[in-house]
Amino acid sequence: MLNTTMISTAAITLNLISLIGTIIIGFLCIFMLSMLLPSIIRKHDVVLILVTNNYLALLAFALVAIPTNIDIVRGDYNLYIGMETFGCRIRAYIFYSSVAIIFHTFVLQACFRFFRVVYPLHVYLQNGITYIVVIPILWFISFLFMIPIYVWHDIKFIHRENVCLLAMHSVRGFIWSILIIYGIPIVVINIIYIRLMRFIRQSSKIASTRAKRDVIVIQRIVLVVSILTLMGIPSVVLKLMLPFTDVGKPLFYRSQNIVIVTGIIVLSFMLVYVTPQLKEVFIRTRKSGKVTSIYTQQRSILSDKSSNNNTTDYEQLSSGVYTITFVESP
Fold first, then answer.
1. Which among 98, 133, 167, 277 is least surrounded, fewest beta carbons within 10 Å?
2. pLDDT, average across residues 275-283
Protein backbone atom coordinates (compact mmCIF):
# COMPACT_ATOMS: atom_id res chain seq x y z
CA MET A 1 0.00 0.00 0.00
CA LEU A 2 2.81 2.37 0.93
CA ASN A 3 4.68 1.52 -2.28
CA THR A 4 1.56 2.22 -4.36
CA THR A 5 1.08 5.58 -2.64
CA MET A 6 4.71 6.55 -3.28
CA ILE A 7 4.41 5.61 -6.95
CA SER A 8 1.17 7.60 -7.25
CA THR A 9 2.77 10.65 -5.61
CA ALA A 10 5.84 10.40 -7.86
CA ALA A 11 3.63 10.06 -10.95
CA ILE A 12 1.57 13.14 -10.04
CA THR A 13 4.73 15.14 -9.30
CA LEU A 14 6.39 14.17 -12.58
CA ASN A 15 3.34 15.15 -14.58
CA LEU A 16 2.92 18.50 -12.79
CA ILE A 17 6.56 19.29 -13.59
CA SER A 18 5.93 18.32 -17.23
CA LEU A 19 2.84 20.54 -17.36
CA ILE A 20 4.71 23.54 -15.95
CA GLY A 21 7.56 22.85 -18.38
CA THR A 22 5.28 22.79 -21.42
CA ILE A 23 3.65 26.07 -20.33
CA ILE A 24 7.11 27.65 -20.02
CA ILE A 25 7.97 26.40 -23.52
CA GLY A 26 4.76 27.91 -24.92
CA PHE A 27 5.33 31.37 -23.40
CA LEU A 28 9.02 31.35 -24.34
CA CYS A 29 8.17 30.53 -27.98
CA ILE A 30 5.54 33.27 -28.14
CA PHE A 31 8.06 35.76 -26.73
CA MET A 32 10.76 34.73 -29.23
CA LEU A 33 8.37 34.78 -32.18
CA SER A 34 7.18 38.27 -31.21
CA MET A 35 10.79 39.45 -31.56
CA LEU A 36 11.67 37.45 -34.68
CA LEU A 37 8.65 38.21 -36.88
CA PRO A 38 9.22 42.01 -37.03
CA SER A 39 12.87 41.38 -37.93
CA ILE A 40 11.86 38.98 -40.72
CA ILE A 41 9.31 41.45 -42.10
CA ARG A 42 11.93 44.21 -42.07
CA LYS A 43 14.76 42.04 -43.40
CA HIS A 44 14.15 38.73 -45.16
CA ASP A 45 17.05 36.94 -43.47
CA VAL A 46 17.08 33.19 -44.20
CA VAL A 47 18.75 32.40 -40.88
CA LEU A 48 15.99 34.17 -38.95
CA ILE A 49 13.36 32.41 -41.07
CA LEU A 50 14.87 29.04 -40.14
CA VAL A 51 15.06 29.94 -36.44
CA THR A 52 11.44 31.07 -36.57
CA ASN A 53 10.64 27.65 -38.00
CA ASN A 54 12.40 26.10 -34.98
CA TYR A 55 10.29 28.09 -32.53
CA LEU A 56 7.09 27.40 -34.48
CA ALA A 57 7.83 23.67 -34.16
CA LEU A 58 8.44 24.10 -30.42
CA LEU A 59 5.19 26.06 -30.09
CA ALA A 60 3.29 23.33 -31.97
CA PHE A 61 4.70 20.79 -29.50
CA ALA A 62 3.64 22.95 -26.53
CA LEU A 63 0.11 23.44 -27.90
CA VAL A 64 -0.35 19.66 -28.09
CA ALA A 65 1.56 18.75 -24.91
CA ILE A 66 -0.25 21.22 -22.61
CA PRO A 67 -3.78 19.75 -23.07
CA THR A 68 -2.31 16.23 -22.92
CA ASN A 69 -0.68 16.93 -19.55
CA ILE A 70 -3.85 18.65 -18.31
CA ASP A 71 -5.88 15.52 -19.13
CA ILE A 72 -3.36 13.40 -17.22
CA VAL A 73 -3.67 15.71 -14.19
CA ARG A 74 -7.46 15.58 -14.41
CA GLY A 75 -7.27 11.79 -14.54
CA ASP A 76 -4.97 11.69 -11.50
CA TYR A 77 -7.60 13.53 -9.45
CA ASN A 78 -10.54 11.63 -11.01
CA LEU A 79 -11.88 14.79 -12.65
CA TYR A 80 -11.96 13.30 -16.13
CA ILE A 81 -12.18 9.79 -17.55
CA GLY A 82 -11.00 9.51 -21.13
CA MET A 83 -11.42 6.81 -23.73
CA GLU A 84 -9.82 5.72 -26.98
CA THR A 85 -11.37 7.86 -29.67
CA PHE A 86 -10.28 9.12 -33.07
CA GLY A 87 -9.47 12.54 -31.61
CA CYS A 88 -7.46 11.00 -28.77
CA ARG A 89 -5.29 8.96 -31.15
CA ILE A 90 -4.87 11.87 -33.58
CA ARG A 91 -3.66 14.15 -30.79
CA ALA A 92 -1.05 11.56 -29.75
CA TYR A 93 0.01 11.22 -33.40
CA ILE A 94 0.44 15.01 -33.66
CA PHE A 95 2.41 14.98 -30.39
CA TYR A 96 5.02 12.53 -31.73
CA SER A 97 5.02 14.21 -35.15
CA SER A 98 5.79 17.58 -33.56
CA VAL A 99 8.80 16.06 -31.78
CA ALA A 100 9.98 14.71 -35.15
CA ILE A 101 9.52 18.14 -36.76
CA ILE A 102 11.68 19.75 -34.05
CA PHE A 103 14.62 17.51 -34.94
CA HIS A 104 14.01 17.81 -38.68
CA THR A 105 14.15 21.62 -38.49
CA PHE A 106 17.79 21.28 -37.45
CA VAL A 107 18.45 19.20 -40.55
CA LEU A 108 17.13 22.08 -42.65
CA GLN A 109 19.39 24.53 -40.80
CA ALA A 110 22.42 22.31 -41.42
CA CYS A 111 21.50 21.95 -45.11
CA PHE A 112 21.29 25.74 -45.53
CA ARG A 113 24.73 26.24 -43.96
CA PHE A 114 26.15 23.47 -46.14
CA PHE A 115 24.69 24.94 -49.35
CA ARG A 116 25.96 28.41 -48.50
CA VAL A 117 29.54 27.17 -48.13
CA VAL A 118 29.73 24.49 -50.84
CA TYR A 119 27.39 26.02 -53.44
CA PRO A 120 27.71 29.81 -52.96
CA LEU A 121 26.87 30.53 -56.62
CA HIS A 122 23.49 28.78 -56.42
CA VAL A 123 21.52 31.84 -55.35
CA TYR A 124 18.18 30.03 -55.10
CA LEU A 125 19.63 27.83 -52.33
CA GLN A 126 20.19 30.97 -50.25
CA ASN A 127 16.91 32.69 -51.07
CA GLY A 128 14.33 33.21 -48.34
CA ILE A 129 11.45 32.37 -50.70
CA THR A 130 12.97 28.93 -51.30
CA TYR A 131 12.89 28.10 -47.60
CA ILE A 132 9.42 29.57 -47.11
CA VAL A 133 8.31 26.95 -49.66
CA VAL A 134 10.50 24.16 -48.25
CA ILE A 135 9.41 24.57 -44.61
CA PRO A 136 5.75 23.48 -45.13
CA ILE A 137 7.01 20.56 -47.24
CA LEU A 138 9.33 19.53 -44.39
CA TRP A 139 6.44 19.61 -41.92
CA PHE A 140 4.31 17.53 -44.28
CA ILE A 141 7.09 14.95 -44.72
CA SER A 142 7.57 14.74 -40.94
CA PHE A 143 3.86 14.05 -40.44
CA LEU A 144 3.97 11.55 -43.30
CA PHE A 145 6.90 9.65 -41.78
CA MET A 146 5.02 9.25 -38.48
CA ILE A 147 1.82 7.90 -40.05
CA PRO A 148 2.86 4.21 -39.62
CA ILE A 149 2.62 4.37 -35.80
CA TYR A 150 -0.99 5.49 -36.26
CA VAL A 151 -1.86 3.04 -39.04
CA TRP A 152 -0.29 0.11 -37.16
CA HIS A 153 -2.50 1.03 -34.18
CA ASP A 154 0.56 1.35 -31.96
CA ILE A 155 -1.00 4.46 -30.43
CA LYS A 156 -3.45 3.26 -27.80
CA PHE A 157 -5.43 4.67 -24.91
CA ILE A 158 -3.43 4.14 -21.71
CA HIS A 159 -5.91 3.87 -18.83
CA ARG A 160 -3.34 4.66 -16.16
CA GLU A 161 -2.35 7.88 -17.96
CA ASN A 162 -5.86 8.78 -19.14
CA VAL A 163 -4.56 9.74 -22.62
CA CYS A 164 -3.51 8.06 -25.86
CA LEU A 165 0.22 7.36 -26.20
CA LEU A 166 2.60 5.06 -28.04
CA ALA A 167 2.12 1.78 -26.16
CA MET A 168 5.20 0.59 -24.28
CA HIS A 169 4.79 -3.00 -25.50
CA SER A 170 4.76 -1.91 -29.16
CA VAL A 171 8.30 -2.75 -30.30
CA ARG A 172 7.62 -1.95 -33.95
CA GLY A 173 6.19 1.51 -33.24
CA PHE A 174 8.94 2.27 -30.72
CA ILE A 175 11.75 1.38 -33.16
CA TRP A 176 10.10 3.32 -35.98
CA SER A 177 9.59 6.48 -33.90
CA ILE A 178 13.18 6.35 -32.61
CA LEU A 179 14.43 5.96 -36.19
CA ILE A 180 12.38 8.89 -37.53
CA ILE A 181 12.75 11.26 -34.58
CA TYR A 182 16.40 10.66 -33.66
CA GLY A 183 18.05 8.37 -36.22
CA ILE A 184 17.54 10.17 -39.52
CA PRO A 185 18.37 13.71 -38.24
CA ILE A 186 21.55 12.54 -36.48
CA VAL A 187 22.81 10.61 -39.51
CA VAL A 188 22.01 13.40 -42.01
CA ILE A 189 23.50 16.19 -39.85
CA ASN A 190 26.70 14.22 -39.24
CA ILE A 191 27.04 13.43 -42.96
CA ILE A 192 26.63 17.15 -43.73
CA TYR A 193 29.26 18.06 -41.15
CA ILE A 194 31.77 15.47 -42.43
CA ARG A 195 31.29 16.51 -46.06
CA LEU A 196 31.59 20.18 -45.15
CA MET A 197 34.86 19.63 -43.28
CA ARG A 198 36.22 17.56 -46.16
CA PHE A 199 35.26 20.29 -48.64
CA ILE A 200 37.02 22.99 -46.60
CA ARG A 201 40.19 20.91 -46.25
CA GLN A 202 40.32 20.09 -49.97
CA SER A 203 39.45 23.60 -51.11
CA SER A 204 42.40 25.67 -52.27
CA LYS A 205 40.62 28.89 -51.36
CA ILE A 206 40.87 30.42 -47.95
CA ALA A 207 37.57 30.00 -46.16
CA SER A 208 35.66 33.23 -45.71
CA THR A 209 34.52 34.51 -42.33
CA ARG A 210 30.94 33.55 -43.13
CA ALA A 211 32.00 30.02 -44.14
CA LYS A 212 33.87 29.61 -40.87
CA ARG A 213 30.83 30.82 -38.97
CA ASP A 214 28.62 28.33 -40.84
CA VAL A 215 30.97 25.50 -39.87
CA ILE A 216 30.81 26.60 -36.23
CA VAL A 217 27.01 26.69 -36.38
CA ILE A 218 26.86 23.15 -37.80
CA GLN A 219 29.21 22.00 -35.03
CA ARG A 220 26.81 23.50 -32.52
CA ILE A 221 23.84 21.84 -34.22
CA VAL A 222 25.62 18.48 -33.98
CA LEU A 223 26.27 19.17 -30.29
CA VAL A 224 22.66 20.14 -29.54
CA VAL A 225 21.16 17.16 -31.37
CA SER A 226 23.65 14.84 -29.65
CA ILE A 227 22.71 16.23 -26.22
CA LEU A 228 19.00 15.80 -26.94
CA THR A 229 19.63 12.24 -28.12
CA LEU A 230 21.64 11.41 -25.00
CA MET A 231 18.77 12.72 -22.88
CA GLY A 232 16.50 10.17 -24.56
CA ILE A 233 18.79 7.23 -23.77
CA PRO A 234 17.28 6.58 -20.28
CA SER A 235 13.86 6.02 -21.89
CA VAL A 236 15.39 3.61 -24.42
CA VAL A 237 17.20 1.68 -21.68
CA LEU A 238 14.02 1.50 -19.60
CA LYS A 239 12.10 0.29 -22.64
CA LEU A 240 14.66 -2.49 -23.23
CA MET A 241 14.40 -3.54 -19.57
CA LEU A 242 10.60 -3.84 -19.53
CA PRO A 243 10.38 -7.42 -20.93
CA PHE A 244 12.68 -8.67 -18.15
CA THR A 245 11.61 -6.60 -15.13
CA ASP A 246 8.77 -4.44 -13.85
CA VAL A 247 11.17 -1.83 -12.44
CA GLY A 248 10.10 1.58 -13.69
CA LYS A 249 7.04 0.24 -15.47
CA PRO A 250 4.44 2.27 -13.47
CA LEU A 251 6.34 5.50 -14.21
CA PHE A 252 7.50 4.70 -17.74
CA TYR A 253 5.22 7.15 -19.57
CA ARG A 254 5.70 9.93 -17.00
CA SER A 255 9.49 9.51 -17.12
CA GLN A 256 9.48 9.53 -20.92
CA ASN A 257 7.30 12.64 -20.94
CA ILE A 258 9.45 14.62 -18.53
CA VAL A 259 12.62 13.68 -20.45
CA ILE A 260 11.09 15.01 -23.69
CA VAL A 261 9.86 18.22 -22.02
CA THR A 262 13.23 18.82 -20.32
CA GLY A 263 15.02 18.33 -23.64
CA ILE A 264 12.70 20.80 -25.39
CA ILE A 265 13.25 23.42 -22.66
CA VAL A 266 17.02 23.03 -23.01
CA LEU A 267 16.65 23.32 -26.77
CA SER A 268 14.57 26.52 -26.47
CA PHE A 269 17.47 28.25 -24.73
CA MET A 270 20.26 26.62 -26.75
CA LEU A 271 18.85 27.99 -30.01
CA VAL A 272 20.36 31.32 -28.96
CA TYR A 273 23.73 29.56 -28.65
CA VAL A 274 23.32 27.85 -32.03
CA THR A 275 22.28 31.00 -33.90
CA PRO A 276 24.52 34.09 -33.46
CA GLN A 277 21.97 36.28 -35.29
CA LEU A 278 19.53 35.83 -32.40
CA LYS A 279 21.87 37.81 -30.16
CA GLU A 280 21.81 40.65 -32.68
CA VAL A 281 17.99 40.59 -32.62
CA PHE A 282 18.07 40.79 -28.81
CA ILE A 283 20.48 43.74 -28.86
CA ARG A 284 18.51 45.56 -31.57
CA THR A 285 15.24 45.02 -29.70
CA ARG A 286 16.74 46.33 -26.44
CA LYS A 287 18.19 49.40 -28.17
CA SER A 288 14.88 50.03 -29.90
CA GLY A 289 13.09 49.76 -26.56
CA LYS A 290 15.51 52.22 -24.94
CA VAL A 291 15.22 54.70 -27.82
CA THR A 292 11.42 54.48 -27.69
CA SER A 293 11.47 55.02 -23.93
CA ILE A 294 13.79 58.05 -24.20
CA TYR A 295 11.73 59.48 -27.07
CA THR A 296 8.53 59.07 -25.05
CA GLN A 297 10.11 60.74 -22.02
CA GLN A 298 11.38 63.65 -24.13
CA ARG A 299 7.96 64.15 -25.70
CA SER A 300 6.38 64.09 -22.26
CA ILE A 301 8.85 66.71 -20.97
CA LEU A 302 8.35 68.94 -24.03
CA SER A 303 4.60 68.58 -23.70
CA ASP A 304 4.76 69.60 -20.04
CA LYS A 305 6.97 72.60 -20.87
CA SER A 306 4.64 73.67 -23.66
CA SER A 307 1.67 73.35 -21.35
CA ASN A 308 3.41 75.42 -18.66
CA ASN A 309 4.40 78.12 -21.18
CA ASN A 310 0.85 78.37 -22.49
CA THR A 311 -0.49 78.64 -18.97
CA THR A 312 2.01 81.41 -18.12
CA ASP A 313 1.17 83.35 -21.28
CA TYR A 314 -2.50 83.06 -20.52
CA GLU A 315 -2.00 84.30 -16.96
CA GLN A 316 0.06 87.24 -18.19
CA LEU A 317 -2.54 88.12 -20.79
CA SER A 318 -5.32 87.91 -18.24
CA SER A 319 -3.35 90.09 -15.83
CA GLY A 320 -2.79 92.69 -18.57
CA VAL A 321 -6.45 92.87 -19.45
CA TYR A 322 -7.37 93.27 -15.79
CA THR A 323 -4.92 96.16 -15.40
CA ILE A 324 -6.30 97.99 -18.40
CA THR A 325 -9.79 97.56 -17.15
CA PHE A 326 -8.79 98.92 -13.73
CA VAL A 327 -7.15 102.05 -15.22
CA GLU A 328 -10.02 102.90 -17.54
CA SER A 329 -12.66 102.45 -14.87
CA PRO A 330 -12.50 106.03 -13.29
1. 133
2. 77
